[in-house]
Amino acid sequence: MAAQPPSSGAPAAAGNTKRTPKRKPKTKPAAPSALNPNWAQLQSKLPASTFLGKRKRPAPSPPPAPSPNPDAAELSFKLEPTSDDTSLTKALALDCEMVGVGAGGSKSALARATLVNSFGNVVYDEYVRPMERIVDYRTHISGIRPKHMNKAKDFSIVQKDIAELITGRVLVGHALHHDLKVLLLGHPKKDIRDTSEYEVFRREGKRRSLKDLAAQELCVKIQQQEHCPCRDNKLCQVELE
């Protein structure tokens, strides 16, 4: 008996069957994790308006106010006389302003001499015509200008006047040896009160400028620009009181 050929139906049926892809299960959103107990406790203590996040940069601070002009402080200061008395008191303060003469103006010559009494009043103030030609007016310090020489007195006249006025009196000033040198005058040491030589005013045994002393002892700024002999004399009188 002949063998029957294999049936082709089964393979055909198998070839017609389609595999359906498996669907991935949908992932459920994770439940929010519980806050750390310490963090939750901290949040409960903070005010409602507090925002916990990135720190904000602080707003830039406004620029500092400009410092006052030192010249304005000087101009606002004025020493007033304690009396209207313009007499020659027992003590007189002397200050001189110099100009430059000689080669390159390196030599100092008298150009103004001022005396102030104990009450702060000017008793003598004259411009002086040097015996030599002026090379450097030193205006930025002395305040002397060519126009001042138009009404200046001869050196010999001013020298004689000063010598007569200070004789027998106490002479007050700062670094008086410079003033007496340009006047070609001397004065008894016992009658000199020099603020540059006063031990109390010295710093580590060294002399100090009148500008420095006025700033420390009187809280006053002076000599920011041109010097004024009348004011400098008053300061010396005040410092020694």
Automatic annotation (TrEMBL):
Stretches with biased composition (Pro residues) = 59-69
**Where in the cell is the protein located?**
Nucleus
By what name is this protein known? RNA exonuclease 4
Q: Which InterPro entries match?
A: REX4_DEDDh_dom, REXO1/3/4-like, Ribonucl_H, RNaseH-like_sf, RNaseH_sf
Q: Where is the composition biased (Low complexity)?
A: 1-18
The record's listing under SMART domains reads:
EXOIII
* Entries under Pfam families matching the protein: RNase_T
Q: Where is the Exonuclease domain?
A: 90-241
Keywords from UniProt, A to Z, are: Exonuclease, Hydrolase, Nuclease, Nucleus, rRNA processing
Can the keyword Ribonucleoprotein be found in this entry's annotation? no
Superkingdom as given in the UniProt entry:
Eukaryota
Q: Which GO terms describe its biological process?
A: rRNA processing
Q: Which GO terms describe its molecular function?
A: 3'-5' exonuclease activity; nucleic acid binding
List the Gene3D superfamilies hit by this protein, alphabetically.
Ribonuclease H-like superfamily/Ribonuclease H
* Family per record: Belongs to the REXO4 family.
Q: Where is this region: Disordered?
A: 1-73
